[in-house]
Amino acid sequence: MTLTDTLLAFAYLITGVLFIIGLKFLSSPAHARTGNTLAAIGMLIGVVATGFDAHIITWPLIVIGAVIGAPIGYVSAMRVKMTAMPQMVALFNGAGGGAAALVSSGEFLRILNGDQSSGASTLIPIILSTIIGSISFAGSLVAFAKLQELMTGRPITYAGQQFVNGLIALTVIGLGVALVLGYVTPAVFGGLAAAALVLGVLAVLPIGGADMPVVISLLNSFTGVAVAITGFVLNNTVLIISGTLVGASGTLLTMLMAKAMNRSLGNVLFGAFGAATASGGAAAAGGKQTSVRTASIEDVATMCAYARSVIIAPGYGMAVAQAQHAVRELAANLEKRGVDVEFAIHPVAGRMPGHMNVLLAEANVPYSQLHEMDEINPQFEHCDVALVIGANDVTNPAARNVPTSPIYGMPILDVDKAKSIIVFKRSMATGFAGIDNPLFENPKTAMLFGDAKDTVSKLAAAVNTV
Amino acid sequence: MTAQLLTEITVFILAVFVGFEVISKVPSMLHTPLMSATNAIHGIVVVGAMLVAGAAIGGSVGQAIGLAAMVLATINVVGGFAVTGRMLQMFKAKAGPKA
Question: How does DSSP classify residue B26?
Fold first, then answer.
């Protein structure tokens, strides 16, 4: 081992340690920023150290790549709206997965040129990281397109879909095995990468918008694993450590999200949830409109202003309407009148884990007011008014007591236990899953129809004049 | 199995445990920043991209692959840390002046 190699190994160790410490700091909102800075310093050390690696003999491509990539990353990170965070994260995640697959493809070229051993211990990780990285890249782009509404957020299904996907998965595996068995040609490898890309696209198509928290977490873990395996290709421990950390994080979040929906990962990925019931549910809702009670803004303002405690349960609708600032204003105006205001956050509210927390933080709601489901649920029975803003399925009592409901068994926010419930909704359409929500017909419930931002702003103003 | 591979597998397995241990302590409130921070961290693949782009392998195909890997990895690293920092800066214990 040369001196440079030794120093390089130490630098990578520092990088790995800084990543771990950085993640550790993320366990409290007060220190989280320091954690991010530490991780970024770790990254810088790793990159600078790599510059001294003897294997790097030419710089132009590295510099050009960085000069193109850095401003794209920075500008999009600074400009993105907080409501669009899920698709931004999906894009960055896809970029990482794509990079991992490309690095492995580069190593494959080295094998073709005879500069790299074609032994199984190199070839297998190259194949695996190309497959997983490609799936993550293509899958993330589809997730982005769905979240950005470049295509429908509803599940896209067709007859024989699982058969087709299965066939492509088998093709990927078959080509991988062929490579290991000695068919080391550009055509086989190209076919492998192409099939993996197609698989990534097709696998995400049947997954609907409300299941995105699971999918984004899973793709996150995929990229992590792809990077870790790339570490095995390059014999680079910092890639192994970092990729594995990310893989563990993504896996943990995937499990948490699936649990919060009371569904297995298999059901989320292959169930095309919400597709079959969508048309029937919407039609049924049309016929049932008569049984809900609507309220005026003035009624609700009076009710809230004279309440002792109000709990706000936000959902994806708040993000769509960009209503988080209006919600914050409403909460502030109520607090000025001495009303206790708390927020109830369901783990899968929104389109990615923790989505609502980020939006409310952006609107300047202190994090001490944001409560997890298990923490806030016992408080609903003591609460005078529960405001459901753009949330639907996560408050649907059918999950508790209708065994035939598709969401039966999913833990929900107990908003129906509040003394009165106000539901802010754009229209009487069913939620994403296309399921009727008995909460709306509850005698304690009143509906406020309209754009959430507009309605909540008017309500915030009305509270001041009560 | 070579000694190097064995060491790498050891590192991998230990990292799995460290990962689960550290991540399970992150409160659900910070799950979005966590996701975007881990996103930035897997940008370490930029090290691999540098090694491919800087090694001049495989003629124009190799150059294209190296350049593309560099671009994607840099977007990942820079964007990931920037967006995480931007998000975390918004989390406040008490209501500050109106943003």
Answer: S
